[in-house]
Amino acid sequence: MVAGVASGLAEHLGTSTRLIRIGFVLLAVTGGAGFALYGALWLLAPLRPDLDPRPASAGQAAAPGVRSPDDDRSARLGPLLALGAVGIGVLLLLSEAGVRSGPAGAAPLLVVGLGVAVLWRVGDDAQRARWRRTAAESATGTRAWVRIVIGLVFVLVGCGAILAARVGVKAAVDGVAGGLAVLAGVAVVAGPWLIRTTRELTDERRERIRSQERAEIAAHVHDSVLQTLTLIQRNADDPRAVVQLARVEERALRSWLYRPDGADPTRFRAGLEAIAADVEELHGGTIDVVVVGDEPVDDAMAALLQAAREAMVNAVKYAAAGGPVSVYAELEPTQASVFVRDRGQGFEVDAIPADRLGVRQSIIGRMERHGGRAEVRSEPGEGVEVRLILPRSPAVESAPPDAAPAGSVTGERL
Amino acid sequence: MTDDLARSLPRVVLVDDHRMFRSGVRTEIGDLVDIVGEAADVDEAVAVITATRPDVVLLDVHLPGGNGRDVVLRCVAAGIESRFLALSVSDAAEDVIGVIRAGARGYVTKSITGPELASAVTRVAEGDAVFSPRLAGFVLDAFAGSADAPVVDEELDRLSQREREVLRLIARGYAYKEVARELFISVKTVESHVSAVLRKLQLSNRHELTVWATDRRLV
């Protein structure tokens, strides 16, 4: 209810919050132990991890200009002041409790307790606000200060009342004034040191985050780039292997740099790029992929991807010395198309033997089963282009022209 | 071409922070163009370009002390009329679009072969635009979905059907000559379509373009 101690304890012990609360109240009524226990737990028990300060400080490191250092310090000094006041209150309370009891002594104690509660709450809130870094933070900042002042006044009045009851009003005023003077002295002496310490702590935390990031990058470079460079040196005699290694590493590094969140393999673009990388790795060669548009892959599109894969395999096989293979895919509202082009020898399309399973079944047959079509265009000496076209209106997809003869391959000549 | 050969070759300045890459380019295209200067960072590049006034600047997108975009902007601001051809390993759309929108006349990747690069330089020197397949893909992507995007300027924010066809063929890996043959048009017409697309790319305020251009990542 006040600081979430009871519910936290209940969570920890696996009992109900209400039970814990009743226990606290019983202990409090029968001699004040409940208050003490509650306070101690409030101070010592760690906050739940979702209130962990680390994410916020990462944000701080990333955007140091968002919050002025003054705000930072005041938010951190608030709880310190509160704790100082509480300490004094407790000391007075102990010396007093030994001497006096009864209702007359209880009222000032209650006032002190109220002040302490207000101050502790401020400490809690200020910390949470710092961790959350909400936009309304500066507002909470001033509210926190108002509450600190109110809390301090409560504590001072309460202590004054206790003193007044013991030694008279005049001596009490003198005592409170003296106490304030001592506090001011302590603040002057310890203040700079406290500020410096908190600042050093912040710096250290920032530095730690930075070095964590560095370590992560170093680990990545070591696992991938350095390994590949070693392999390249070892395979220096085999140009094909060197190109292959360099290409694989380039791909990995590119996806790490430009797609830090990782590619989603269930989407068309990432799927096609993954297939190209796979074909490169298995069969060698270089495949440049350009994709326009992106969508989740459905059944027909999965078939399109598989047909594209077969076309790429053919292309890298026949374009070995003919430079890179170009793959272009475009998703339009009415159709999805993939073009695979190589710069190899090319061949007479009409001369494809009927038993060439690769082109006939894997590419043309597959496309036709899903309502699409495949065209192979080639001219000897100018390379080959395979065009895969998949209409995307649902009506066409549901009625695949499975009876279409395989001879519908268009062997256009230029 | 009957003139003195050296005079007809385009004068080129190479800007790249990797010396090995610069000397590689020099070896590959040194005979096909006239390389008049080299630079390794933004300030040096601006100084060399100001001093030599080349026809074409071959420009790396990522440079120490800024990036290729800054070089283009500073040279344009200084009234230098050299043309810029961006040359990069980066595949990131914001890099490509950023340097094009600053004023570069084309974009090619570093995997381009020597002869291709030399012909791209010549093309840019003559005032034409040079698109790599990937750049063509980016442009098609950026100008796609015109149905839902608000079109502010009909002339600048949309590609014509013909421009789309030309870009598609470039994205498929077709050379200009092949594009011309495929569409039954002349190479000159292909060039004018690509130049028109470049102009739209530089001047259009389409949301996708401005996002790509401003959303630059610091890699």
State the main characteristics.
heterodimer, A: 414 residues, alpha+beta, Heat Shock Protein 90, five-stranded mixed beta sheet, 66% helix, 8% strand, disordered C terminus, B: 219 residues, alpha/beta, Rossmann fold, six-stranded parallel beta sheet, two-stranded antiparallel sheet, 12 helices, 53% helix, 15% strand
Brief overview:
The complex is a heterodimer of chains A (414) and B (219). Chain A has 414 residues and is an alpha+beta fold.
Structure overview:
Chain A is an alpha+beta fold and 414 residues long. Among the domains of chain A are: 1-47, no CATH class; 270-408, Heat Shock Protein 90 (2-Layer Sandwich), CATH 3.30.565. Helix content of chain A is 66%, strand content 8%. The longest helix of chain A has 66 residues, at 169-234. Chain A is elongated, with a radius of gyration of 38 Å. Chain B has a single domain (5-214), classed as Rossmann fold (3-Layer(aba) Sandwich), CATH 3.40.50. Chain B contains twelve helices and eight strands. In chain B, the strands form two sheets. In chain B, strands 2-1-3-6-7-8 form a six-stranded parallel sheet. A two-stranded antiparallel sheet of chain B has the order 4-5. In chain B, a hairpin with a 2-residue loop joins strand 4 (62-63) and strand 5 (66-67). In chain B, helix 5 (93-102) packs across helix 11 and helix 10 crosses helix 11 (187-203). The longest helix of chain B is centred in the C-terminal third of the chain and has 17 residues, at 187-203. Chain B is globular, with a radius of gyration of 17 Å. The mean pLDDT of chain B is 83.
